[in-house]
Amino acid sequence: MKQDVVIFGATGKVGKILVDQILDKDADKRRITGVVSSQNWLYDPNGLGYKLALDFSGGVVDGYSYGGDHSMLLDEIRKLQKVPTSFVDVTASTDMIPTHLRVVGDSFYDGMVTANKNPLVKDIETFEKLTANNGKYQFQCSVMAGAGAIEKVDEAYELGDEVKEISGCFSGTLAYLCDQMRKGKKFSEALFDARSPERGYTEPDERDDLWGFDVGRKLLILARRAGKKVNLEDVNISPFLPNMAFGKEESLEKFRGKLQTYDVYFEERIKLAESEGKTIQYIAKMSTPSVDDLLEKGVSEIPIPIPMSLEVGLKKIPKSHLLGGLEGTLNGFEIITKERYPKGSSLVITASGAGLKVTAGNVRVGLNNLMRYDRRT
Ligand SMILES: NC(=O)c1ccc[n+]([C@@H]2O[C@H](COP(=O)([O-])OP(=O)(O)OC[C@H]3O[C@@H](n4cnc5c(N)ncnc54)[C@H](OP(=O)(O)O)[C@@H]3O)[C@@H](O)[C@H]2O)c1
């Protein structure tokens, strides 16, 4: 029996590629029964034809207006579906939590695969509800586009192997900027290049990358999977640029107009790092700092036990370190655990952390995982 799939965000950049990939490569195991955009949808419990699914995702046909109310869609699907339905969220919407909770909480639905991080970074109770039944909620794509970071943290946690440290470079855009500046480009030139239509590495408003919040949200998801009861406020995020670069309610044009001011800022940081045999990288890190770390930061009274820290920021890092030598837009992830991956034998993953084809491919891995948990077999 084929897997029935409904895709939220089918008209988006990842969504279009996903529709393409399912139609091209998965015809033997799954069929698309529903496609949803922010306002319109199409649904047929017998499967949407190849052309209809493609035309909707390509914006050629509009589908039916549903006014953005997913509960009405879920009611309709529950009424009409012939076999349990699997859902995909490739939106960037902050309003998907009720939809996710309903899908994971109702045995009538097979489960949810999400590349959308938003539902995972709200309060810890929502996170725990969503991820309580791992098999039904596939969210591996939310970090490094599904390259295995979440799975490695999960493995350690499930084996009772204490996670001592997680560090990573989780923004392809910021990794690219560091790589280009290391190779001699000025910051403003590297950013201009990164947001050129040929590259398209940045968000439409590049401040969304430069703030570092997206990296902070990925670290939060990993920390929660390591069993830490933490929220976004617990992540100390230093933006890629100094705080003063982000003027209050400043237009994008004005922001872009002063980017060259920061060329020297980065040149100096790179020079300083090089004088210590290091380089710069935008790093997310969950760790328990050592006494030396705290003393270096000027902490006079060392707390016992030393609390865990979650930090995101531009750091100096040895050139020989894997995260220091990342080329282009590559992402990196390192995990140190008490038993399986102790310091000196840490586990490291480098991979393309974004990209439409990679993300869509890993969403399909999530759909395959849902099939493994399928209650119909
Ligand atoms: N791009 C990557 O390489 C990458 C990698 C990993 C993860 N991701 C994640 O994947 C997600 C999608 O990224 P993208 O670049 O494809 O985004 P996008 O191009 O902005 O597409 C968003 C899609 O979501 C739809 N949408 C918005 N609100 C909706 C709602 N309430 N209900 C149903 N559909 C809704 C939009 O419909 P309309 O057409 O009506 O606006 C559009 O189809 C994001 O969460 C992103 O963080 C992306």
Structure characterization notes:
The protein is globular and about 65 Å long. The longest helix has 17 residues, at 356-372. It has helices at 13-25, 50-57, 70-80, 97-105, 124-131, 149-158, 172-182, 187-194, 207-210, 213-225, 252-257, 263-275, 291-296, 356-372, and strands at 3-8, 30-36, 40-43, 64-65, 85-89, 109-114, 137-138, 163-169, 235-237, 278-287, 309-318, 330-337, 347-352. The mean pLDDT is 93. Helices cover 36% and strands 20% of the residues. The chain has a 7-stranded mixed beta sheet with strand order 4-3-2-1-5-6-7, with helices on both faces. The protein has 14 helices and 13 strands. The chain folds into 2 domains: 3-146 and 357-372, 3-Layer(aba) Sandwich (Rossmann fold), CATH 3.40.50; 153-352, Dihydrodipicolinate Reductase, domain 2 (2-Layer Sandwich), CATH 3.30.360.10. With 377 residues, the chain is α/β, with parallel strands linked by helices. It starts with a strand and ends in a 5-residue tail after the last helix. The structure holds NADP nicotinamide-adenine-dinucleotide phosphate. NADP nicotinamide-adenine-dinucleotide phosphate is lined by residues 8-9, 11-15, 36-39, 68, 90-93, 95, 115-116, 141, 145, 354-356, 359.
Major β-sheet annotation: 7 strands, mixed
Estimated helix fraction: 25-40%
**Spans of at least 5 consecutive residues with low confidence:** none
- Assign the CATH topology of the largest domain: Dihydrodipicolinate Reductase, domain 2
What binds here, in terms of ligands, is: NADP nicotinamide-adenine-dinucleotide phosphate
Which structural class do the helices and strands define? Answer: alpha/beta
Strand content: 15-25%
What do the pLDDT scores average to? 93
Order of helices and strands: EHEEHEHEHEHEHEHHHHEHHEHEEEH
CATH architecture label name of the largest domain: 2-Layer Sandwich
CATH class term of the largest domain: Alpha Beta
Question: What is the alpha-carbon Rg in Å?
Answer: 22 Å
Q: Please identify which CATH superfamily of the largest domain we are dealing with.
A: Dihydrodipicolinate Reductase, domain 2
Domain module count: 2
Number of beta-strand segments: 13
Q: How do the strands line up in the largest sheet?
A: 4-3-2-1-5-6-7
